[in-house]
């Protein structure tokens, strides 16, 4: 069974340039060049009302999380793109390097949350359908064992970060991973993100205080398994956008 955790931290992480390439930023060339068109990130609408996930996640949390936190990642990422474009055009290597952290953090925040909103649904919960359930049973032994491992990974994240269920293209297996801060799963591990649990405190503190395990236990009631399965199907047939 291929279910060991992978962490998105360490010396083997690809540079933020790889993330930029995935988000329509021109790669580094080492020489001054004409400015390239910037494809700005856009804050997506939620596919449900802010109160739709209650009582699992309150409307106040959802509104703050979406309108403030995600919106800030989008705005800061777009600003960082402009800084990078200017640095590339001027051939200023130091400026190019300096903006990488902002691109990684804010671009990752945008990617992660764009997946997270669709991973949740007022009609969620229960177990996935046969196609996904068979894969879960194969790679983790059972759905309950998968939930236990995924929950433990989420609760165990030190500080802020994410727990993910990803698809490993090389092994054709599902895999659990954890990422620090807003590191995006695919750009840092190669795993296709299928299901993410946000364990930053802003995702739960207003409602669950500092008891992260209660939040993680409750969030399973609103997991949109149709979306997770659709992402797996797309990964197997050629990949998904914005990840």
Automatic annotation (TrEMBL):
Reactions catalysed according to its record: 2 superoxide + 2 H(+) = H2O2 + O2
Single Gene Ontology MF annotation: manganese ion binding
This enzyme's EC code(s): 1.15.1.1
Pfam families from the UniProt entry: Sod_Fe_C, Sod_Fe_N
Residues reported to bind Mn(2+): 65, 113, 198, 202
Coiled-coil blocks: none
Major localization class: mitochondrion
Subunit structure and binding partners: Homotetramer.
Record protein name field: Superoxide dismutase
Origin species: Macrostomum lignano
């Amino acid at each position: 069974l291929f279910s060991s955790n992978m962490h998105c931290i360490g010396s083997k992480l690809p540079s933020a340039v790889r993330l930029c390439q995935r988000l329509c930023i021109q790669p580094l060339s080492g020489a001054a060049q004409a400015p390239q068109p910037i494809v700005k990130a856009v804050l997506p609408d939620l596919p449900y009302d802010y109160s739709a996930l209650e009582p699992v996640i309150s409307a106040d949390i959802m509104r703050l999380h979406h309108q403030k936190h995600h919106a800030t990642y989008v705005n800061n990422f777009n600003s960082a793109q402009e800084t990078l474009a200017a640095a590339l055009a001027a051939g200023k290597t130091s400026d190019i390097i300096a903006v990488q952290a902002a691109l990684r953090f804010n671009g990752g925040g945008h990617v992660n949350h764009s997946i997270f909103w669709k991973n949740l649904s007022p009609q969620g919960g229960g177990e996935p359908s046969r196609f996904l359930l068979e894969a879960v049973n194969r790679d983790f032994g059972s759905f309950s064992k998968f939930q236990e491992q995924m929950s433990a990974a989420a609760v165990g994240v030190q500080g802020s970060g994410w727990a993910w269920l990803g698809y490993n293209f090389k092994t054709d297996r599902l895999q659990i991973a954890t990422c620090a801060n807003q590191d995006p799963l695919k750009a840092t591990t190669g795993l296709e993100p299928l299901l993410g649990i946000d364990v930053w405190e802003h995702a739960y503190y207003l409602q669950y205080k500092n008891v992260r395990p209660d939040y993680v236990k409750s969030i399973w009631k609103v997991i949109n398994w149709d979306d997770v399965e659709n992402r797996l199907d797309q990964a197997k047939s050629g990949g998904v956008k914005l990840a």
